[in-house]
Amino acid sequence: MSTALPFTYLDVAKMIDHSLLNPTLTSDALADGIELALRYDVASICILPYALKACAEKTKGSNVRASTTIGFPHGGHRMSIKLAETRQALADGGEELDMVVNISQVLSGHWDYVRDEIYAITTETHAAGAKVKVIFENAYLQDEHKIRLCEICSEVGADWVKTSTGYAPTGATDEDLILMRKHSAPHVQVKAAGGVRDLDALLRVRALGVTRAGATRTAQMLDDARVRLGLDPIGGRAVNTPGGY
Q1: Which of these is catalytic: 53, 162, 176, 223?
Q2: 191 catalytic, yes or no?
Q3: Cα 104 to Cα 72, 111, 115, 117, distances in angstroms
C-alpha cells in the first residue's frame, strides 16, 4: 500500500524564490529563467534590479510574484540610496523586496541606525502593498547579532528574516534557521538562502519552519517533487551559473 507524502506540489513550489541574481546572466538567460519560474509556478522570481520591470510585466496575472534586491549584496549603501532603490523597485512592479542590512553597522552595535533603516524600508514597502525580506548575512555575524536582528524585524513588522545573500562564504545552516524561527515573532516568516540545492534539503528546512528558500536549481527540485508525487515532470533547462544560491 502506498503512503501519501506529507506535501503537495504547491506546498514546495510556493516555497521557492527562483533566483536570477548572478551578474553574468545575459538578457536571454534572464528571460529563460522567468519562463522557467512561471512554468513551475514558484512563489517569486528574485531578479537583477534592472530587469525587474520586464519581469513584472511577464508575471502579471500569474501567481508568481516579481521581486528584487535592495542594497545587494553587501548592504553598505547609504540609507537614502536603499530607499531610492526601494522606491524604484516598487515603481517597477516589485511585489517582494529582499534588502541587505548594513552589516558594518550591525557589527558595530549601532542598533538605532540598523533599526531605523529596516523600519524605513519596511514602511515604504508596506505602503505600496508589497512585502520585505531582511537579509542578515549570517556568515559574518554572531548569534547575539542574529537574535537582535530578529527582534528588530519583529518590532518593525518585516515579513521575512533571511539568512544570506548566497554570496558570502556560507549560506543557510539548520542552526541559524532554528535560532531565527525561535527569536522572530509568529508574524515574521523565515527564508533560507544559500545551500538549499535539492528537494530533500528543501523539505528539511520546511520542517524547521522555513516558508521560503532561494534557489537556482528550481527545475531539478520541483521535477523531483513531481516524480515522488506520481506526477509527470515539467522539464526545462535550468539557468545554473557559478556562485549564488
Answers
A1: 162
A2: yes
A3: 14, 11, 13, 13
CA distance 189 to 167: 22
Question: 17 pLDDT exceeds 90?
Answer: yes
DSSP for 150-206? HHHHHHHT-SEEE---S-SS----HHHHHHHHHHS-TTSEEEE-SS--SHHHHHHHH
Catalytic residue among 92, 176, 191, 223: 191
pTM of the model: 0.94
Going along the chain from its start, the domains and CATH numbers come out as: 9-228 (3.20.20.70)
Q: What percent of the chain has pLDDT over 70?
A: 95
Average the pLDDT over 165-190 and give the result: 97
Pick the catalytic residue: 98, 159, 176, 223? 98
